[in-house]
Target: Glycerol-3-phosphate dehydrogenase [NAD(+)]
Amino acid sequence: MSTSRAAARLSRVAGHIHITSPIQNQTRRMSAVTNGRPQRRHKVAIIGSGNWGSAIAKILAENTTANSDLFEPEVRMWVFEEDYQLPSDHAAYDPSRHSHPTKLSALINELHENVKYLPGIPLPPNIVADPSILSAVKDASLLIFNVPHQFVSKICDQIDGKILPYARAISCIKGVDVSPAGISLFSDVIGRKLSIYCGALSGANIANEVAQEKFCETTIAYDPPGTLTPVPEEFPVVNHALWKALFHRPYFHVSMIHDVAGTSLGGALKNVIAIGAGFMDGMGWGDNAKAAIMRIGILEMRKFGLMFFDTCRSETFTEQSCGVADLITSCAGGRNHRCAKLSVEQGRPIEEIEREVLNGQKLQGTLTAKEVYEFLSARGKAEEFPLMTAVHRILIGEEKVEDIPKLLHSGGGLLPSPK
Amino acid sequence: MSTSRAAARLSRVAGHIHITSPIQNQTRRMSAVTNGRPQRRHKVAIIGSGNWGSAIAKILAENTTANSDLFEPEVRMWVFEEDYQLPSDHAAYDPSRHSHPTKLSALINELHENVKYLPGIPLPPNIVADPSILSAVKDASLLIFNVPHQFVSKICDQIDGKILPYARAISCIKGVDVSPAGISLFSDVIGRKLSIYCGALSGANIANEVAQEKFCETTIAYDPPGTLTPVPEEFPVVNHALWKALFHRPYFHVSMIHDVAGTSLGGALKNVIAIGAGFMDGMGWGDNAKAAIMRIGILEMRKFGLMFFDTCRSETFTEQSCGVADLITSCAGGRNHRCAKLSVEQGRPIEEIEREVLNGQKLQGTLTAKEVYEFLSARGKAEEFPLMTAVHRILIGEEKVEDIPKLLHSGGGLLPSPK
Model:
């Protein structure tokens, strides 16, 4: 970005901070300012340093530098410590230091590269890898969560009471937890466990492509209640403009919305639809059959959101990156789509394909299809979601792929009135 | 379809005819009925017998048979007459009759196959090919237009005054006519020239796949004004349920809406977006960049519709087959996408690729991009459609593909409030 454009953007962002909008009322108050600027800057920490965590850390660090009136430049990144042997063909390999396994956090800080999880991508030097989670989150007013979902709960237990009471958070963890008992959003788990507010980021994003600065978009949902511990007045107000200043890059376009549940749901439900799309390709029914499944999938995802979450908005699914765009990507080449396609083509159970193709990893879509079906069945609603129900029933052998058009046709009410 | 399901569907359709809904008020009146049924049935004619025309004729003929309480079984299909030499390896080839070129209409009626334009697909015997357009449309109360768009005007001139004054029509002609002076819908041209009402059918449909009964969906828009010559009372009411009975098949799912302009616009504007999506693939930016372009494309298509047509509805673009699904298909493998991709990969003008790949046929998207740009520019609105404008300006060499993310970012108001 040219200096003048960056300056123009900064002034826009700074301008926003003093604009009242209805959605900012909850946290807004007059900033104590000196010469038109808040006296303190936000300190950013990211919890997680895998593939996606490192790509997001890179973005955060680029933006804390670019917006140094709003953020302290240093971004602390918590690293789950492990020993790592730097390959001898790495450009920075020095036999005097790297001939034996080294701490990953130390390597990241030395080489400014996450050599294990995001190799080949230079990280800004203002990312500081920290193997201590308590040290990483200390004094951070903005917390970004980007860890595998099974660790969320334990990590929150570790840092509960050790973070700033007025910290605000964004979860980059994909999907939701679905069980017959209910649906739980990772952002809600984080917020509840830490007694803070946590929004959500989700979109048509693949870590490596984002890290390579290939163009994509994402959605960030942030809609804090009015009952939080206030952010002290000397900080810039934490609102949509501030989060956009922290996440938006020329190659990573951010759209800010309020619907946290809808933003999170798409990342889970799209995997079920991608299996349905893979079935169409497996049948050789062509791009139009697949587009039909995707269209119906968007509408069923929306119906699910509107039925079970008061705060869900129709347009999160039909217009946002976390909805329609993420679904498009998943149906174009994701693993759920691929395994479903191969399963139909070869006439073999998807579990066999999964074992062969995924090398020990598990398909998200088959599990989510089962969980969603059980959740819906427990509420007598399975028939109102004919596509997601058909996908599950085909996966367990109770229906056939060739009957999908009939199953969709017989289903009830695919088109609810949007709110 | 099983007999019992067919019967159930018929009774649903018949039931609908006597239900008042707000949208039917304009044309609704009490039918003169005998034993609960209208005394006369609709006669269906299709004007056009190309690839898509023949596939639609097959659907019509299947449904007039299945719904013989509503429609006369015979479907007249106007054939632009030509001589055709049946290949000697055709299964029905008989040297005593086929050793020389034969009239195409006679061949269709003899073989129940459009051997030239839809070879290999058996057509129902109740399709009657008719080389006389006046004879084909005579006494038809339902007219289906499915001809290349450049012939619409001339054909209307030929049959003007020779059709039933109370006929109703549906245009299956894809797209719209865009010029700096304005946008004209083919359905409007037909309606105006013939002094009847004409709706529109558009969706993610490829003629050959529909003919092979591969599953897909379509959208039919029908919203007649209250000022038409009334359909006589002894006919079944021409409403959404009737059109659905005529077009919906187990493999061809129909969604009925009211937004004729939106239904038609998608089929034209999607070609511009498909070029943008092809640019992304050409850059090797991955599925997420492409999904971002498609998402923005849906929103720009919608914005275009809402800005220039009072009757357009947001959901036609975000939810219907004629909108989001047709766009998905076009960006997956259509010719606009393919040529744009090759153009970027090979660093050569798209016109060169077009000549090589399309064998003399013209790309729709480059022409539409130019027409849309000129239309928008004439109204000072080009900047409000940054993606469509960028596509055109890249095509004419005024911008670069790699600047698309920047061009999108700088554009004004991508997200209008839907109506």
Remarks:
- Chain B touches chain A through 46 residues (CB under 8 Å).
- The first helix of chain B runs from residue 3 to 17.
- The radius of gyration of chain B is 23 Å.
